[in-house]
Write a structure and sequence with these properties.
The structure holds 2 protein chains of 2 kinds.
Chain A: H1 30-37, E1 42-46, E2 52-53, E3 68-72, E4 76-85, E5 98-105, E6 110-115, E7 130-138, E8 141-148, H2 152-158
Chain B: E1 5-12, H1 24-39, E2 48-51, H2 57-64, E3 70-72, H3 80-93, E4 99-107, H4 124-128, H5 145-152, H6 156-170, H7 184-189, E5 192-195, E6 197-198, E7 207-216, H8 217-223, E8 230-239, H9 254-267, E9 276-279, H10 285-293, H11 302-307, H12 324-327, H13 335-347, E10 359-366, E11 371-378
Classes of the chains: A mainly beta, B alpha/beta.
Organism (chain A): Thermocatellispora tengchongensis
Biased composition (Pro residues) (chain A): 1-28
Domain ChsH2 rubredoxin-like zinc ribbon (chain A): 33-69
């Protein structure tokens, strides 16, 4: 193990903005991040019990089978639960309050994400509302986020 | 008949709160010395050491000059000390050691000699939580509440009542950090931290520590420990998901349920036997889950139960009588302080003493509903 280099001395003038955290793939999670890079939201599926699961693991957490595969999901989800953070994490300082959510994919698995392209208010974010995946480029990886998936009729009805 | 196990010594650090002049290690060691004094024992009476976090059981034993025959470094979050008690009971019964010292010290507020919080970017939370701007427990532990509210009808006012009820207790406790009585309106008017959680629905962040001495009833007698023994009648432990997003059902904690059932079964008690209850309260919704998952009330009933005053002073199920993590202290791993308050209530020496406490139940949480342990403690053998 190499010794990490000491941090560079602070530059004069205003500090550069802190970047948002960037996930670092590991061998077991790489297919997920490769899928995201290709614009696909991929999760694992057990071929023995025919159920999807997430987060990445080498065997099915339910039946224990190692006969599992990576599959693309449809990227459609509903809003399972969320908070609206008023205390920004490093990198999120300039966004105003933002929604940290857990969404449930049509395939039955849940994952944490942000709800974007809508102002984060309790009125806008109604549990079980339909969502669809979008990807954000960040530090060399693409991150799955979700936005409201309004039906055209519903959108018109809301005026 | 198994060997009866008792808590023979229990103490906290001299002070709790903002202690920038003390490192995490100093907090451990002061708590340890206070607990040994409380038990009337010296370091050479101890042959087992259990602790979690910085700096760990090896350094604690070494710093105190203890020669350990048994070590436990189980580190599963704020519930760890309940796990340590449970493991110590088993170890003493198995003859692995005789007398165990369990310590906690955390510079949670001042961060003196404390590790950093941010997860590594290639860890599970580093890949699947941190990128979404979570900032510690306030934005993760809280994630379950809106789902619970939707499915049970819990109101924002009822959530606020948890903080109000516990402030009624801390008002009676001179060592509590927050003592001024508050109303539901005060809670709902406090700064929004992570909707639906306002500041007063979030735990304090403090420095402090505590320690316990656990041994057999027989050995406590032989050593002449001066304080009323507190009997460990039963315990249970379990775990669920390492990250909150994978918790099976956001309206109930499977780990709470399993740990509670095991402890009640071992202790052979029913809910009607319980005089006093401590439920880990990092955020206002956690005692609501705890009351339901331990089976004290039915699903969806805990909010009303608390709002009606049943857990407040004079209520039929006094809960979090030190003021809890919301109003007493919360160093980060609060479980030690929940046990300490149960011991004080069973000894009859709590600041806000409930009359006639014979059986007390402690539920500890670790991580964000990740681990749980339950202890059934009593002022007499089972």
């Amino acid at each position: 193990m190499s010794v990490p280099a000491p941090p560079p001395p602070p530059p004069d003038g205003p500090r550069p903005p802190v970047p948002k955290p960037v996930p670092k793939p590991t061998p077991d999670t790489l297919p997920f991040w490769e899928g995201a890079a290709a614009g696909e939201l991929r999760v694992q599926r057990c071929t023995a019990c025919a159920r999807h699961y997430f987060y990445p693991r080498p065997a099915c957490p339910r039946c224990g089978s190692q006969d599992v595969e990576w599959v693309a999901t449809g990227g459609r989800a509903t809003l399972y639960s969320y908070v609206i953070s008023h205390r920004p994490a490093p990198g999120f300082e300039h966004e105003g309050p933002y929604a940290i959510a857990v969404v449930e994919l049509e395939e039955g698995v849940r994952m944490m994400t942000n709800i974007v392209n809508v102002e984060a208010t309790p009125e806008n974010l109604v549990l079980d509302m339909p969502l669809r995946v979008v990807f954000e480029e960040r530090g060399g990886v693409r991150l799955p986020l979700f936005e409201p998936a309004y039906e055209p009729a519903a959108e018109a009805a809301e005026g | 008949m198994s060997v009866r196990i008792v808590i023979a010594g229990a103490a906290e650090t001299d002070e709790l709160g903002k202690l920038p002049h003390m490192s995490a290690t100093q907090l451990h060691l002061q708590a340890a010395r206070n607990a040994l004094a409380d038990a009337g024992l010296g370091k050479d009476d101890i042959d087992g050491v259990a602790t979690v976090g910085t700096p760990g059981p090896i350094q604690i034993a070494h710093a105190l000059g203890i020669t350990p025959a048994w070590l436990d470094g189980t580190g599963v979050g704020g519930s760890s000390f309940l796990f340590h008690v449970r493991h110590a009971v088993a170890a003493i019964r198995a003859g692995l050691c005789h007398t165990v010292l369990i310590t906690h010290g955390e510079s949670g507020r001042s961060r003196v000699g404390a590790p950093r919080f941010a997860p590594a970017p290639d860890s599970l939370p580093g890949q699947f939580e941190a990128p979404y701007g979570v900032l510690g427990p306030a934005t993760t532990f809280t994630l379950t509440a809106l789902r619970y509210m939707k499915e049970t009808g819990l109101t924002h006012e009822q959530l606020a009542e948890v903080a109000v009820a516990q402030r009624r207790w801390s008002h009676l406790n001179p060592r509590a950090m927050m003592r001024e009585p508050i109303t539901v309106e005060d809670v709902l008017a406090s700064r929004m931290v992570a909707y639906p959680f306002h500041l007063l629905e979030c735990c304090l962040v403090t420095d402090g520590g505590g320690a316990l001495v656990v041994t057999s009833e027989e050995r406590a007698r032989a050593l002449g420990t001066p304080r009323p023994p507190v009997y460990v009648l039963g315990s249970g432990e379990s775990a669920e998901s390492p990250i909150i997003s994978q918790m099976e059902d956001f309206t109930t904690s499977a780990a709470f349920r399993r740990a509670g059932e095991a402890a009640f079964a071992e202790a052979k008690i029913s809910h009607a036997d319980v005089d006093h209850l401590m439920i880990y309260d990092a955020f206002a919704h956690v005692p609501i889950y705890g009351l339901e998952d331990l089976g004290f009330v039915g699903r969806g009933e805990a909010g009303a139960f608390i709002a009606e005053g049943h857990t407040s002073p004079g209520g039929r199920l006094p809960m979090n009588t030190n003021g809890g993590g919301l109003s007493y202290t919360h160093t980060g791993m609060y479980g030690m302080f929940a046990i300490q308050e149960s011991v004080r209530q069973l000894r009859g020496e709590a600041a806000a003493q409930v009359p006639g406490v014979e059986v007390s139940v402690v539920l500890g949480n670790g991580g964000m509903f990740a681990s749980a342990a339950t202890l059934v403690l009593a002022d007499r053998e089972g």
